[in-house]
Structure formats: C-alpha cells, structure tokens
Queue: 4 jobs
Job 1
Amino acid sequence: MSAIVSWAEKLADWTIPQHILERAPRSPYVHDPATFAVDETLDRSVLSAEVARSVLPKSGGSVLDVGCGGGRAAMSLVPPAERVVGVDQDPLMLESFTQAAAAVGALSKTIEGNWPDVAVDTPTADVVACHHVAYNVADIEPFVAALTGRARLAVVLVVPIRHPMSAWNDVWRRFWNIERPNGPTSDDFAAVLDEMGIAAERWEMPRPPLARHTSDEASRVSGTLRRLCLGEDRTDEVAEFLASHEPDWATVHSVFRWPGDAQL
C-alpha cells in the first residue's frame, strides 16, 4: 500500500465515535493556548533547535512556524533568527505568538488559517518549522509540499515516535470502554517522505520540556475531561484515575530536516 494512503487511513482510525461526540459538552479539538505558551520552560538547546540553527544565517534570519501555537518552535531560534512568522487556525494562539515574539525582540507576523490553504499568502522564510502538527494532517502530501515550497534553506519537522493521543488509550478504555489505535508513527512519516522523493535527514531526541501550564493539576484534569468528551460531573473520578495512571507519553521524538525549494 502507498505510504501516503496508509498514513491517511491510520489517522482516520482516530475519529471519535459519533455517539461520544454527541455527548461532549466541549469540543475535544479545541486546545488551551497556555498549553503551548512560551515561558521559562523553553529549552533553546534541544536537538531540534540545534538542527534548525545550524542552517540559519548567523544574523537577520527568518523562521516560519506552521501550526505555531504560542511559538515555542520559532522562539527557540531567536537569536539568530530575527523575524518570525506564525501560522495557526486559532487566533488566541496567534496572540500568544505575537506576545512571545515581542518579549524576545523579534519582528513578527501572524497568519490565521489552515495549512496549506494559507500557504499562498504566507511569506517564504529561511527555515520552516513544524512541530507536533503532522499527526493532525490526513492529507499529508500537499501539506509537506507546501512546507517545502515556503522554505529557502530547510524544513525542520518534529513528531513523537508514535501518535501523541495514544498516551491516553488507557483513559479511553477506562471511561468509554473503547480501544484506540496507536499509529501512525514517525517511521510512517519517514515512509511518506521517501514516497514523495524527499531526502530527509533524521535524528531522535528526548521529549522536550512542556509549558508550565501542563503541570497544573486543575488544568490537567480539565483538559482530560475535554479530550475525553466528559462533563465536569466526572471531575473527581478523572482526577482520581490520573493520580495513579500517568498517560503513557512517547519519551522520544523524531526530528526531520530536508532542503527547501523556495527561491533564495
């Protein structure tokens, strides 16, 4: 089977059953911007940042952060980058991105919308960063092609070695008695790149630090309720379960880098 087709089919398996969605008091697909905020937890020395910095100009460089959230990928590259562009479908995430850029003294621009729909309206950059987004994209070929088309020097893309939502499979089993999938994996993404004829370098690194907000217990429980389509009446039950069942996070992330083809 085609790697691109297989990628889409594996992501389709993550669709939340309709009978569960219909009972959700909040959309499970909306995220708290604080989860992706730039704060003191940002580690600019992680491997993905080093991989991107190694191809950036020593001064005056630019970064396009696709699916930017609060801008943790882009801000880890300032300096040497001096200009950052954030693309996200959530305006609250873009507000956080703008604030983070101002705090580090970078010139910034934001574009609201879905990638690659807004690619035509997005400026090129020396480096295009795309962290923890690919597992949300079933139609992966045009997504990757648009990343490549806006990068003058390189694309740096980061994903956990397996789908991040697989960390919650035990919780889904406990509260809804359903089995969730595990794929796709970063090996599946590598196969997609190979099928597209993209010669990418690849590294593995430990899971980077998360924003401080993610360690707040109340926020953690609230986020779990939202993710599992549960109401606040299950708060105590969820908190008790999480206290003894830490989500099984992938502790290793894959870093891919390949050349861009935007004109210099």
Note: The longest helix spans residues 91-104.
Job 2
Amino acid sequence: MRGPRGGHHSVDPRSSGATLALDTLRSLYAEVDSLLDGWSCDASTDCCRFGVTGREPYPTAVELAALAQAVRARGGLPKRRSLPVVTAREASERRCALLSDAGKCLVYATRPFGCRTFFCERASGPAGESSRAMPKKEIARLGRAVADLSARFDPVDPGPRPLSKAVAAWNLRAR
C-alpha cells in the first residue's frame, strides 16, 4: 500500500490500530493545545515560511497519516497558479504547501506537533510572558509521547522528515 510519504506504508490507515493511534494523536494534540492556551504570536504565519525562519516541522509517520487524511477529506491540496517569474523573495520564503493563498492553514486542526509548539521570539504568553517562559519540559514530554506513538504506529518508518518533502510526495492535489 502507498503511504502518505510516497513510500510503502506498513500500516493500513483504515485498521482499528491506526484508528486508535490517530485518536491517541488527537488526544496528545489536545493536551499540548491546552498547555499552550493563551500563547500567541502577532506574526502567526511567519513560521509557515520555512525559508524566513530557517526552521521546518519534521512530522512523524502517525502525524503524516493524520495530515494526509485531513487533506483527502478537504478534497486535496489546491492547485497553485504558477507564475512565469518568481521573485527572489517568493523563492526564498519556501511557503508551507498547507498554507492557503489567504495565509491560513488548510488543515489547522490537524497541524503537526512542530507547528503547534513553534513560537518565535515575538510570541507571548497569556499574561504577556516572553517565549522563554514557555512550559518546555511539558512540551518535550508530549513530543516524546508523539514520537513513541509513531514508533508503535509504524515500526519500520525511518523517522520524522521535513514537512515540505513529505507533502510534495503525496500528490494529493485537487483535481
């Protein structure tokens, strides 16, 4: 069977084990979202421009399965209009394929752990705290839980990979 990363996937996403793993992933996401409730960043989609931040999420196999399911449920990814000339700025931005032209995440509820927990230096907490005050130990614990879940979900998976490369391999464009 073809997996969300374009290779062979050892887990049938329709199996009861996969359903349980995806439900567990949603629970872990709810826990991290609750932990970070009230944290925000005025430049909220800068992190979706990997060339701007120099960082990119590396989702695990179970996260990629959840993302692929969410993309399929919305009918695929939109076709992007290719411009004859791409400016140097546009090329250097390296926008996430899951970011709409309007600047919104197409699968926000299913965004990976790395997207949920990445806050730049401009982030602030519910009481105005700086990003240095984030609950890093709790975030790390939840990150390990996602990694452990993914290892059980697909034991032969090679591990997290850049989101942009994984999405490019899906070929889930809207028809």
Note: The chain is about 40% helix and 0% strand.
Job 3
Amino acid sequence: MKIPVFLPNTLIFCSLLLANSACSPLPQVADLSSVPLVAILEKGPCYGRCPVFTLTIYDNNIALFEGKRFTDKEGKWMRKLDKTEMASLREKFQAADFFNLSRVYPSRIPDMATVSLTYHENGKSWTVMGKEGRPEKVLELEQYLDQIAQSGTWVNKTPTREVAAPNDEIIVQLQPDTQVPQWLEKYQEFEVDAVKKLTAQANNWLIRFNVAKISAEELLGRLQTDPAVLGAQINLPLEPR
C-alpha cells in the first residue's frame, strides 16, 4: 500500500499550525489594565547613567517593560514568560517571606537609585523600597527580575504617538562655581538628570526630567528663579526649512 505523497506535507503543515497556536499573540498594553498583577520592579534615577525603568509582571504571564532612561529598550516592550519563569518568580517571593519585610530601608546616600519591589498574592500586596542596606533576599529578587528584563524576545509595543521625542529637555546655564551633582539634588523629586555638558568653557548643560512629575513650563519657571541658574530654555527640536 502506497502512502499518499501529500501526507508528509500535511503533517508538516499541522505541526506548524500547532506550534503557532501555542504562541498566542501579545495583547495591547491597554488590554492589561484588568489583568491581576504579580510583581513590579521599579528603578529610579541616580546622579549617573543608572537605568530607569519599570518591569511589571501580570498573572497571564505577560511582562511589560517600560524603559524611561539609559536602557537598551526605551518605551513599552512586552514578552510572555514561560511557566518555569513564573513558578520560579512566585517561589522566590514566598521563600523571601516578602510580606514580613520592612517597607522602607532608609539610606543616607542621595546619589544612589531607589529600587522598589512590589508583590501581589491572594488579594494582598506589599512594597519594599530602598537603596543600600536591603536584605540579601531582596537583592536576589531584584537580580531575578533584572534577569527577566534582560532575557527573552521582547516586542516593541510603544504607541506611535509616544515614539516622538517628549518635551523633556531643558538647556541651562549655571553659575561658574555651581557643582552639578549637588545642584541636581534640589530637583530630584522631578527626576532631573544632567544629560551632557554643552560647552567646555561655560557651565552650560542639557538636562532631562520626568514629564509625569512636572511640566516643562513649570520646571522652567522654577529654574528662572533659581540663583544658581543664569539662563534656561526648553530644548525644542529644529523645524525643517
């Protein structure tokens, strides 16, 4: 009895179909609003080039990475975690006895980034934040979430309207004797960061801030009344001629 010549092709087609059906398409970011949360890792700014991002893991195994500054993925990116990653994540939070940790570990080092970890389980949530001095088991959780953020295949889900450069940069001319790291400390609540020095001679800098914390106009008004600031202007993109 001869095997029909179309059988191998049919088997290959079915295998591919099954493989594709196992990889369900990633949802839109807005569709995650009703999905229960599992864990959140949030890293704030420092006085250097610390990566600033938020990693959110949902109960449907979706991980959402929101890169804000100094990351290799800026904007909103998404990937699906496998069952092993999710199981390991839950096991690590449970092993750390996360709900019995202190909420805040105080720091006296202002130029370090603040790291916040949040875990959700059975209708409860707990957040632990701090800089140095956090327990080793908290650092291990941070390291595991960092590993999730840096591994796997991520898909860019940034809406087109967010790709355009936000109005989050200001050019400032500071008094010659102004020390930039100390000066930035006054504006750390707005996540102001020095991007680069613009001139070798004068104390001119391009600074960037978090538009979710303060508008460009409001920050500009504050800078114009700052005794250390000789001048400030919004860094607007050049219009094509």
Note: DSSP finds six helices and twelve strands in the chain.
Job 4
Amino acid sequence: MQKKVYIIVLNWNGKEDTLACLESLRFTNYENYKVVLVDNGSEDDSVEAVRAGFPETEVVETKKNLGFAGGNNVGIEYAIKEGADYVFLINNDTTVHPDYLKELVEVGESDKKIGAVGSKIYYHGEPNRIWFAGGKINWLRNKGEHIGLDEIDNGQYDKIKEVGYLTGCALLVKREVIEKVGVLEDDYFLYYEDADYSLRVKNAGYKVIYAPKSKIYHKVSRSTKPGSASYIYYHARNGLVNARRNGSLLVKIAIYFYAAYMFLKQIIKILFMPKKRAWAFAVLKGERDFLRGKMGKA
C-alpha cells in the first residue's frame, strides 16, 4: 500500500497563484495523498475561492500571518495528527509535473536513513532553466546557495545525491523525522528556516536527498533580483542565526568577525554610496537584532 502523503500549501493573499497550484496538484500521479491549504490570515477571498473550486482540499485557517515557518507548522501538525506517513511542503506559486510525488516517495522509501527529499525546481516561465538542484551551505559567506541556479538543464544534475540543504519550496519529510526533529523553527519568520531544518535533520542522523526526477516549476523571475528592505533584513539576521545554531565551533566564532566586517562595509556604503544606503541600513538592522537575540517578525 502506498504511503499516505499530506501536501501542505501555504497561502497569504495569493489567490490566483494558489488556485493554479491546486489545479496542478489535481493531476498528481499518486493515489494516497491529501491536499491541505493553510491560509495565513488572507484579506482577499482566497479561502472562499478554494472552497468553491476545490472542495476536495481541506482548509485550515490561522486567522493571522504566522510567517512561512509558522503557517507551514500548522499544516505539518495537522497532517501528523491525521496520520500522515509523509508531509510535503510546496509553495503556492508553483506548478508540478504529475510524477513529482511518486518520484519523491520512491526515493524516500529506498533508504531508511533518508529523512527528507527535495525536487529539481525550474523557473516557471523557462521550464528548462534550473532554479534549484539541491542546496549547499557556504559558511565562508554565511549563506545558502542553490546548485545549478540559472543553468539550462542538460542533464548535468540528474543524479540522486545527498545535499547540504533543501528548499522549503518543495520539501518531503518522513513522519518519524518530524516526530524526532520537530517542526520548522518559526522564530526565523521568513528565510533560512529550511536550511536550519535540513541541518537539524542531518544532525539527527538522517540523509537529506535531492531527487532530480521530481520536477517543480516555480514562479520566480530571473530578471528581478531580491532587494527589498525586508528581504535584506531577514537574510542578514537569519543567516547569522543559522550559523550560530548549526555551524561548527569555528563557524560560530567566525560569524562575529564576519558581522564586524559587514558592519564596517555598511558604514562605508552609508557614508560614500547614497544609492546603497537603504540596503546598508537593512543589513545593520539585521545584525543588531541578531546580537540582541531579537527574532520573529521584524
């Protein structure tokens, strides 16, 4: 009998993307699955539209924005309570190849030591260009990096392999791992909770595996570089937090020197590079909150 998979789709005022995602999930080539929409306090008519158009989808309302981790945790806890063997997190701004879930579960079941499995993810608008083919942690630069980012897929990343981390955009986790490791750390609020979770899974003795035959298409633009103040703030703060929580002793010591270097770099930008002042202030705010231990929503 197939393992029971609960698919968690988190929504926050993203009706059109969410409806397209749910429509795509209807063609999943796997029988024993259930889709759960977790609505993070949307103020549009997302919930009503989902209930009207997708009556087979279970809807859980948080009534407020709990962030990426907090909202997904509500879905994870619901799925475990309902008897899920696996929980699959997927971004609402994605669509899927019909075999995506079958391929993930097949890899997950191939080895008892595999704790989490992730898909190969393409740009939705360029379905042969890679967005994610596994992740690696660059401790020197204190950041997570996508393997294969922006490359045309010529089969160079078609091997199942263990990776540094998996993105929460498309992440399958075994029940026993959740019971042992717990859920996402919701105090990150946004960004790095997936890298943190992957490292915690590894530290618990499980493998984190990239499964290239599982294909997802993500609505992210190559031409739009992330640069909002909130994006910069969360990456600056949470990258340091992740390193302090999961890095080696050397890394935990080095991050304070890195933070000092980044502090001086931002001061130079503020004094001599007016166009980069907003970026610099966001980095400084992130570093300040890291040192103060201030987590959660900015």
Note: The chain has nine helices and twelve strands.
